[in-house]
User: What shape does this take?
Amino acid sequence: MSFISTLLAGIAFPAPPTLIGWLVWVSLLGMLVYALYRWRVYQPVWGGREWGIFVVLFILIAITNLLIGVRLTSASARPLPGLPADAPGSALMIFSAVPWLLGGGLLGPLGGAALGGFAGLLRGTWDTYSMFSVIELALLAAWFSTNVRQRYRTPAYTLLRQPIIGALLLVPLHTLFYIISSLFTQWGVDASVPATARLDLALSNAGIVTLAFAGEMLVGGIVAQIVSKAFPSMWGSRQPLQPSPGEKSLESRFLFGMGTFISL
Assistant: This one.
């Protein structure tokens, strides 16, 4: 583990997706647009205060994602195929998640996605070396916003509204996105790198990448939890509680229970 004063000292390398990877990237973009449309009920109307918060958080995105962090190392980590570089995604930028998590709670899914996408652009250029980071962080920020702003009344959904819980739930999704991006990102000029090499890169680096992202989520979740308690009128939604999908539909309850059992 080594201290990082800034990621700008490294090489800017936003690697594009492979030919098939572009289809995956566009599909994920379509998923993001569809999710934002479905979650529009959680989007508040912006006034002057909200736009001011957005501008401040947008500036903080650049500061927190590029300054002050640590580089995690592991004996099992692999370099990029064909390129001598640090393991992508191994930088733990301590306060990097704070702005887009706050944006999700204060500004709704659209604001969170915009801030997350900008954060993904910076990290994809100087850390993960993949343009998939743009879509990933935008999706994670929008989903976090939906979780903390939903108003279902059952204990599970009440727990999900806690920012620290919502932030930590993003960690396994990040690992999944990391494996997908490793399989469909073209690093270097050689486009014929076999899928086995890409999969080896993803699996060998998954542990350290997950640990780095978990550290960022822990710090961001704690800060978001404090803000939610300090400014309850600004955080989340003030709508009345409503029955959860499981309460309103026996079919939804059955599918949720069976889905949980099958997943386990």
User: Anything to note?
Assistant: The mean pLDDT is 87. The longest strand covers residues 2-6.
